[in-house]
Design goal:
With 257 residues, the chain is an alpha+beta fold. The protein has 2 domains: 145 residues, no CATH class; 98 residues, LytTr DNA-binding domain (OB fold (Dihydrolipoamide Acetyltransferase, E2P)). It contains 6 helices and 10 strands. The strands form 3 sheets. A 5-stranded antiparallel β-sheet has the order 5-4-3-7-6. A 3-stranded antiparallel β-sheet has the order 8-9-10, with no helix packed on it. It is elongated and about 80 Å long. The chain starts with a helix and ends with a helix. 23% of the residues are buried.
Length: 257
């Protein structure tokens, strides 16, 4: 959850900063304050939506899985739809500014094409940043898996197979801190990383040894990694995880024993 909030804030800051720069630049060129404000506030949601769809849908589901052809194809479709939406905004603007004759100079003096192109360049920059970050995350996961393989001679050889990006990966159970339910997905938190895979928490618990204990409908913890606990929560490597009433008696009894 914390990582999602941080990513959201970074994305929001990027677009707020970009919008302010665009606004300041075009106003400084002598364009009407009202027209610049209208087009930026109207066109920016379109490009933000385009950026969000590419970064959160197309990149993880196609590009990172090696389906480059589908990534390019769907990206083209997305851009076409996005352009149609921009044309709609511009068409409405033409009607509004022509009907009410808002100010001078003319609408064409704003050079909407340059404004639109600049916004799509911002989308391209955001997409490149996102690709670099996701590739870096993927490399981190691969490195973590290599490290766990190397550690097999030093610790427990017990493993669990997790499917990530359509590939099966073996993870040492001794590296798992806890598992969190995300509806139809789960997040496996290890000593080195966090891996999200499509599996229900009720199914993965059946594949784990007894020392993995369910303490909440959304959490399974590795009891061997518990650093402290009370009747309300358990701490695992600095993470505080709540205990629900349903599992409280069993987990407290198990930890005390």
């Amino acid at each position: 959850m914390t990582l999602k909030i941080i990513r959201f804030l970074k994305t929001a800051w990027y677009w707020v900063f970009a919008g302010l720069l665009l606004f300041a630049f075009f106003v400084s060129k002598g364009h009407s304050f009202g027209k610049v404000f209208y087009f930026i506030t109207s066109l920016l949601p379109v490009v933000i939506g385009t950026s969000y769809y590419v970064n959160n849908k197309l990149i993880p589901e196609f590009l990172l899985r090696g389906e480059n052809g589908l990534f390019v194809l769907y990206s083209i479709y997305t851009i076409i739809i996005s352009l149609y939406l921009q044309y709609l905004v511009i068409f409405i603007a033409l009607i509004i500014f022509t009907s009410f004759q808002f100010g001078n100079p003319s609408l064409h003096s704003l050079n909407i094409g340059n404004l639109s192109l600049t916004m799509y360049l911002l989308v391209l920059v955001k997409v490149i940043i996102e690709i670099i970050q996701k590739l870096s995350e993927k490399e981190t996961i691969i490195k973590s898996l290599k490290n766990t393989k190397k550690a097999s001679s030093e610790g427990s050889a017990e493993k669990i197979v997790i499917r990530y990006n359509r590939v099966n990966h073996s993870i040492f159970l001794s590296n798992i801190l806890y598992i969190e339910s995300l509806s139809d997905y789960i997040k496996v938190v290890t000593l080195d990383d966090e891996i999200v895979t499509k599996e229900r928490i009720s199914k993965i618990i059946s594949r784990l040894p007894p020392y993995f204990k369910r303490i909440h409908r959304s959490f399974i913890v590795n009891s061997q990694k518990v650093s402290s606990y009370n009747n309300e929560f358990i701490k695992v490597e600095g993470s505080q995880i709540p205990i629900s009433r349903t599992y409280k008696k069993d987990i407290i009894t198990y930890l005390k024993g």
